[in-house]
Amino acid sequence: MSVSTQNLPPKRIPLSRERVLRCALDLADESGIASLTIRSLATSMGTRPMSLYHYVANKDEILDGIVDMVFDEIEPPSPAGEWRDQMHRRAHAVRNALKRHPWAVGLLETRASPGAATLRHHEATLATLRSAGFSVQMTAHAYALLDSYIYGAALQEAALPFHGPDAASEVTSSIVKLFSDGQYPRLVEMATEHVLKPGYDFGDEFDFGLNLILEGLARSITAPEDGA
């Protein structure tokens, strides 16, 4: 006598390291990194906390893993390409990844046991800058400057009380209405002549600053050091 498949319990998806890390990434995206614990992860996966230790040693290993997954989403720059184009494209790729995973802003550079994707990304970025003619020291300065700008911009955008041009206009208008006549004239000027203009998008500020940085760095290129 056959048993109806409707009466059978749903087939459980087997655990694996990849699935554990993918679920951890999804949980961090949905609820923030503070919500990611072994217990909360096990609950979201419908299993017991102890079961996860067969695939990850501890929470630090999970963080290492999901940070590496974020880096794996970011196409690394190519030393064969024009360095400014490559750094411009990389900056936008990192920024977009941080928009998808806001929790990663404070974690990407914290891992003491970086994964393969993380190391490949850093190697490609360093190689691109060195191939452009930056000295070892200037490569370090350029990399730090670019990432400080990218991560700082990501933090600023995430903290804004609006997201998107329409919301920016609404929030700005409501704030300006609170001012008395003649009060805060430069704020009113900035709002009426810039923020409230058609087509305004705070995100456009990113390229302005990035291009200034790249132009400044271009003036710092020197011939590669012998043996460097």
Q: How are the secondary structure elements laid out?
A:
Layout: H1 17-31, H2 38-45, H3 49-52, H4 59-73, H5 83-100, H6 116-132, H7 136-159, H8 165-176, H9 185-195, H10 205-218
Helix pairs in contact: 1-4, 4-6, 5-7, 5-10, 6-7, 7-10, 8-9
Give a verbal description of the structure.
The chain is mostly helical and 228 residues long. The protein contains ten helices and no strands. Mean pLDDT is 90; it is low at 223-228.
Net shape:
flat
Determine the N-to-C terminus distance.
76 Å
Beta-strand content bin:
under 5%
Determine Rg (CA atoms, Å). 23 Å
The total count of strands amounts to 0
> In CATH's first tier, which class of one domain applies?
Mainly Alpha
Q: Tell me the CATH architecture of one domain.
A: Orthogonal Bundle
Tags for this model:
228 residues; mainly alpha; Tetracycline Repressor, domain 2; 10 helices; 0% strand; flat; disordered C terminus
Please summarize what this structure is.
With 228 residues, the chain is an all-alpha fold. The chain has helices at residues 17-31, 38-45, 49-52, 59-73, 83-100, 116-132, 136-159, 165-176, 185-195, 205-218. Among the domains are: 57-161 and 203-218, Tetracycline Repressor, domain 2 (Orthogonal Bundle), CATH 1.10.357.10; 165-200, no CATH class.
